[in-house]
Design goal:
single chain; about 350 residues; alpha/beta; seven-stranded mixed beta sheet; four-stranded parallel beta sheet
């Protein structure tokens, strides 16, 4: 039962109560995001530091960015708050090593929305969280789910490390893609997941449908498709669109990275649903990574999911509620999916993937 996790002390509570100086490892947008919540809680950060190779005399929030050695010389003991996303093994191992030497937190803050996954949030959504847990199909998924909630509450990277699994394992042991797949890639970015799909299928496929909202990324997607020998036509359709629940005009934040996301203002981008775009054409593998719009995109693919029951690989980390809301949404649309949770190595808890398989195991 998940209610036992409610007794865990949260990282926010510990940061509010600590008598040690708090230093932040990182700068930029990620640090600003965490500082927004710390400021609301009245928690002050005394200093900022970066990896030695990134320190070039710069300042952040009026403070000179230091090296760790300077922090260690200045303070006898301190609390570290990490404030950047990382997936390369050496940097992640360095963070794990720091967590064994110092009190360290990697706070979980939402990519989209403002709801923190804290004790109050879990308590308010405990029935939904329990219901989603009951839908998971194997012990590994259930343990991953519990550990992820423990991490989200505590910010302790030990819980996070326990949930990581190689990306390739999800494809080899669960998805098992074949040569006759019709692949719908919602949030295709620069074509990296199209290339990954082709690598898994030996370059064979029935159809590829790819949506990418950002114009710069879309141009990269088209260029990558050309490099891969994909010729737009009946079997290959590439759209400069956002995945949504119907035809719409959205505003996107003015940035061209993977994290281009729906915003209150910004660049206007056309959006449409997968159901509208492919009609009744079969889809056998549906992947979504749409930066917090997963729920709307799932609604827009409900017809595809009901008719064709494709293999699913859906990002479940952009919003605090995604971890439980998305499994419940899939179950409402098409009961009977076997749902698995896999998280690929990353700090913080990004790359959480909800994998759905139809039928008997």
């Amino acid at each position: 039962m998940l209610d036992s996790l409610l007794s865990l002390p949260t990282c926010w509570e510990r940061l509010q109560k600590t008598q040690k100086p708090i230093v932040m490892y990182g700068m930029g947008n990620g640090a600003d995001h965490i500082l927004y919540y710390l400021d609301r809680m009245g928690v002050a950060v005394q200093d900022f530091f970066a990896s030695d190779g990134f320190v070039r005399g710069q300042s952040f929030h009026g403070k000179r960015v230091k090296r760790l050695a300077e922090i260690e010389e200045q303070y006898r003991d301190f609390v570290i708050v990490t404030a950047f996303a990382v997936q390369d093994t050496p940097t992640m191992e360095a963070i794990f090593a720091l967590s064994r030497r110092y009190e360290l937190y990697a706070p979980d803050v939402p990519v989209a929305g403002e709801n923190l996954f804290d004790r109050d949030f879990l308590a308010a959504h405990l029935p939904e969280a329990e219901a989603a847990l009951a839908l998971l199909a194997d012990d590994r998924s259930r343990q991953t789910y519990r550990d992820l909630i423990a991490y989200k509450l505590t910010g302790q990277v030990g819980y996070l490390a326990a949930t990581a699994s190689p990306r390739g394992e999800a494809f080899s042991s669960l998805l098992r893609l074949g040569p006759e797949e019709s692949f719908a890639d919602l949030g295709a970015y620069n074509g990296d997941t199209v290339a990954e799909f082709l690598a898994q299928t030996g370059g064979r496929f029935r159809a590829i449908y790819a949506l990418e909202p950002d114009p710069k990324n879309y141009r990269k997607l088209c260029a990558r498709a050309k490099e891969l020998g994909l010729v737009p036509g009946e079997r290959v359709r590439l759209w400069n669109l956002a995945a949504w629940d119907d035809r719409e005009k959205l505003f996107f934040a003015p940035k061209a990275g993977r994290n281009s996301a729906v915003a209150a203002a910004g660049r206007e981008v056309p959006a449409d649903s997968l159901d509208n775009l492919v009609g009744r054409a079969p889809v056998t593998f549906l992947k979504m990574d749409v930066e917090g719009s997963e729920s709307r995109a799932i609604l827009g693919a409900a017809g595809v999911i009901r008719r064709h029951r494709p293999k699913l690989m859906i990002s479940a980390y952009h919003r605090s509620e995604d971890l439980f809301a998305l499994p419940l949404q899939i179950e409402r649309i098409q009961p009977g999916y076997r749902l698995y949770l896999r998280r690929f190595p990353y700090i913080p808890a990004w790359e959480i993937n909800l994998i759905g398989l139809w039928g008997e195991g």
